[in-house]
Write a structure and sequence with these properties.
This protein is mainly α and 191 residues long. The protein has helices at residues 2-40, 45-81, 85-117, 122-146, 159-181. The relative contact order is 0.14.
């Protein structure tokens, strides 16, 4: 049991290192560019409609490429952090759960960046709080509680990854809904 805990800690450390160096950096850069473009052209609807679509497409394309790389090179990536085959297999299985979530994060980052750049900072903040506090934590706890066994007294190893995936996808859906019907379109940056 302690070996599984140590393995999960190593996976999470490696996963966070990979995200902070490669995946999140690219997505945050694209979101920043979307904020800048939306803020620069706020009030010029015909100009920034095309920019919004191109920016979101670019973010999704970049994220899809990173996701494909994770799926294709997942086991060799995990071998960078450990030589234990059981840990590599577990890590790869956990990465498979999270893989689609990176595309959802790209949608969330891009559309939230546009809303923030146009002056609506509260809507993305509330979506982030709801998906993190009200969705991610209860889902992780609920799944771990429901999957407890004598061998796994804390539940299955996949609980955190499933809760991350659920919150990322729900965050992308909520962001897309508020982006489509939100009040950000009526806001403009005051100079």
């Amino acid at each position: 049991l302690q070996a599984i805990r140590n393995a999960l800690e190593q996976f999470n450390a490696g996963h966070m290192e990979f995200r902070s160096r490669y995946a999140d950096g690219a997505l945050h850069h694209l979101a920043h560019q979307r904020r800048f473009a939306a803020g620069r052209s706020a009030g010029v609807q015909h100009l920034h409609a095309q920019q919004r679509q191109q920016g979101t497409f670019l973010a999704v394309a970049c994220s899809t490429t990173i996701t494909a790389a994770i799926l294709f090179f997942g086991k060799p990536l995990m071998h960078v952090f450990t030589d234990t085959n059981e840990l590599v297999d577990l890590s790869y299985r956990l990465m498979l759960i999270l893989a689609v979530g990176y595309i959802a994060v790209a949608v969330t980052q891009s559309l939230s960046g546009i809303m923030r750049g146009a002056g609506d900072t509260m809507t993305p903040m509330w979506i982030s709080l709801i998906t993190t506090v009200l969705i991610r934590v209860p889902v992780a706890y609920g799944i771990s509680y429901l999957t407890r066994t004598a061998e796994l007294p804390y539940g299955r190893q996949e609980c955190i990854q499933i809760s991350l995936l659920a919150s990322w996808v729900l965050g992308a859906v909520l962001t897309a809904i508020f982006y489509r019907f939100g009040k950000w379109k009526k806001k403009a940056i005051k100079q």
